[in-house]
């Protein structure tokens, strides 16, 4: 974790991977977990403005096989977001 | 993305409150969650600051949200009701615009109606609403008259729903019977169909619950505006030339009339009134305006149009 500290800095993750990241402690307080889930669900389920409905899916990233499966499901890398790294 | 900054700011502020609420509940063990939420908070505060810096649009923009019987949550609105309500609002804006420019006759065609046209450019998510926008072929540098008229219209609607009776009477004093008539039709439609309303324009954001809709409709139907001209004998007590205001003594029963002076009379002419006509018997020609509630006069205003000394005095 210490070697990849950048993975927990939201704006860096966003510009490098086009990913909106919210780290959540699974072994933190149960109430915080529930509240975070509630907030994130609200934030990511529907986009005001263009009316796009979104959903959530669970992807395990425990070992190399999980990584490979996730990569295959994602397909080729999307074009970088505006202001992101080429 | 709606272009109504008031709404965007409200969304960002609500989101900031939610994130602050979450942060307050975190314990020492929620290290990563805190990281994420603090970054989110920072992001929201930046976007809120950016919204504060961006200039207000110089063109007219208003959002109307409807609730109550004709509305099915955020899914839909009865087309007949939605169409009628928007039409009435548009009609009201046209008449307010014409009235402000001094051009609305007692009946007949509303002048320059095309200039008051708003377009529905979006439906507003959240509850069922419409975003009405002035569409200009070129970018505007200064605020348009339509923007002022839309804001005046929302101020007027607010006054109808507000509990304060005085505020309502003052607002009505400024309008004319045709504007009042359209406001009457608008609120009667709301009440008849059991609808509620929220209007957002500029920095104003007003909600009309069932009680406010009922109050507004009741006021609109029980209020009548009477305008006319009257020649009254009395004596000029004096005028304020720059403020265009007068005092005119009429006699024991009516006391002293106070009011505005028609803008057609120049400050020069008014200075002469002060010099030549004060305390002399004169005939004042006044434009009168009476606000009647349930056939009872609640407000009466006089605007001095002309003052002539009585010959031989």
Task: Please report the distance between the alpha carbons of the first and last residues of chain B.
Answer: 71 Å
Spatial extent as radius of gyration of chain B = 25 Å
Please estimate the helix content of chain B: 40-55%
- The secondary-structure element order of chain B is HHEEEHEEHHHEEHEEEHEE
What oligomeric assembly is this protein in?
heterodimer
Structural class of chain B: alpha+beta
Q: What is the number of strand segments of chain B?
A: 12
Mean pLDDT value of chain A: 78
Q: Total number of helical segments of chain A?
A: 3
Compute the gyration radius of chain A: what is it? Answer: 15 Å
Mean pLDDT of chain B: 83
Low-confidence stretches of chain A: none
| DSSP strand content of chain B | 25-35%
Low-pLDDT residue intervals, each spanning 5 or more residues of chain B: none
User: In the residues of chain B, how many domains can be counted?
Assistant: 3
Helix content percent band of chain A: 40-55%
Termini separation of chain A: 25 Å
For the biggest β-sheet of chain B, the strand order reads 4-5-1-6-7
Strand order of the largest sheet of chain A: 1-2
Q: Beta-sheet strand percentage of chain A? A: under 5%
Number of helices of chain B: 8
Structure description:
The complex is a heterodimer of chains A (86) and B (313). Helix content of chain A is 41%, strand content 5%. By secondary structure, chain A is mainly α. Chain A has one domain. Chain A has a two-stranded antiparallel ribbon. The longest helix of chain A is centred in the middle third of the chain and has 16 residues. Chain A is globular and about 30 Å long. The two termini of chain A are 25 Å apart. Chain B folds into 3 domains: 51 residues; 148 residues, no CATH class; 84 residues, OB fold (Dihydrolipoamide Acetyltransferase, E2P), CATH 2.40.50.140. Chain B has a 5-stranded antiparallel β-sheet. In chain B, strands 8-9-10-12-11 form a 5-stranded mixed barrel. A two-stranded antiparallel sheet of chain B has the order 2-3. The N and C termini of chain B lie far apart (71 Å). In chain B, 42% of the residues lie in helices and 30% in strands. With 313 residues, chain B is of the alpha+beta class.
């Amino acid at each position: 974790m210490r070697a990849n500290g950048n993975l927990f800095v939201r704006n860096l993750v966003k510009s490098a991977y086009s990913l909106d990241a919210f780290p959540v402690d699974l072994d933190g307080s149960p109430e915080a977990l529930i509240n975070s889930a509630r907030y994130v669900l609200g934030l990511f389920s529907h986009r005001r403005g263009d009316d796009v409905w979104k959903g959530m899916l669970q992807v395990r990233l425990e070992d190399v096989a999980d990584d490979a499966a996730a990569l295959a499901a994602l397909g080729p890398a999307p074009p970088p977001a505006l202001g992101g790294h080429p | 993305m709606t272009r109504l900054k008031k709404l965007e700011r409200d969304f960002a502020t609500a989101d900031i409150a939610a994130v602050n609420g979450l942060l307050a509940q975190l314990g020492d063990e929620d290290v990563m969650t805190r990281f994420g939420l603090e970054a989110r908070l920072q992001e929201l505060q930046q976007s809120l600051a950016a919204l504060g810096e961006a200039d207000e649009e110089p063109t007219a923009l208003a959002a109307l949200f409807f609730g109550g019987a004709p509305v099915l949550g955020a899914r839909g609105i009865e087309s007949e009701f939605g169409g009628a309500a928007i039409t009435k609002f548009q009609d009201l804006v046209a008449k307010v615009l014409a009235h402000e420019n001094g051009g609305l006759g007692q009946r007949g065609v509303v002048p320059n109606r095309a200039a008051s046209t708003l377009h529905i450019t979006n439906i507003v998510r959240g509850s069922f609403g419409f975003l009405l926008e002035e569409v200009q072929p070129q970018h505007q540098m200064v605020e348009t008259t339509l923007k002022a008229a839309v804001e005046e219209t929302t101020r007027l609607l607010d006054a109808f729903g507000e509990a304060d009776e005085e505020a309502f009477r003052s607002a009505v004093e400024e309008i004319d019977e045709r504007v009042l008539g359209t406001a009457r039709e608008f609120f009667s439609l709301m009440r008849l169909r059991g609808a509620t309303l929220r209007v957002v324009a500029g920095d104003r954001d007003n909600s009309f619950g069932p009680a406010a809709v009922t109050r507004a409709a009741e006021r609109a139907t029980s209020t009548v505006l009477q305008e006319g001209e009257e020649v009254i004998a009395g004596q000029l007590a004096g005028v304020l030339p720059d403020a265009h205001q007068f005092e005119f003594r009429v006699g024991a029963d009516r006391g002293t009339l106070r009011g505005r002076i028609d803008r057609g009379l120049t400050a020069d002419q008014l200075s002469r009134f002060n010099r030549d006509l004060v305390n002399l018997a004169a005939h004042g020609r006044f434009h009168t305006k009476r606000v009647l509630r349930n056939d009872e006069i609640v407000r009466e205003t006089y605007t001095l149009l002309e003052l002539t000394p009585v010959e031989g005095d």
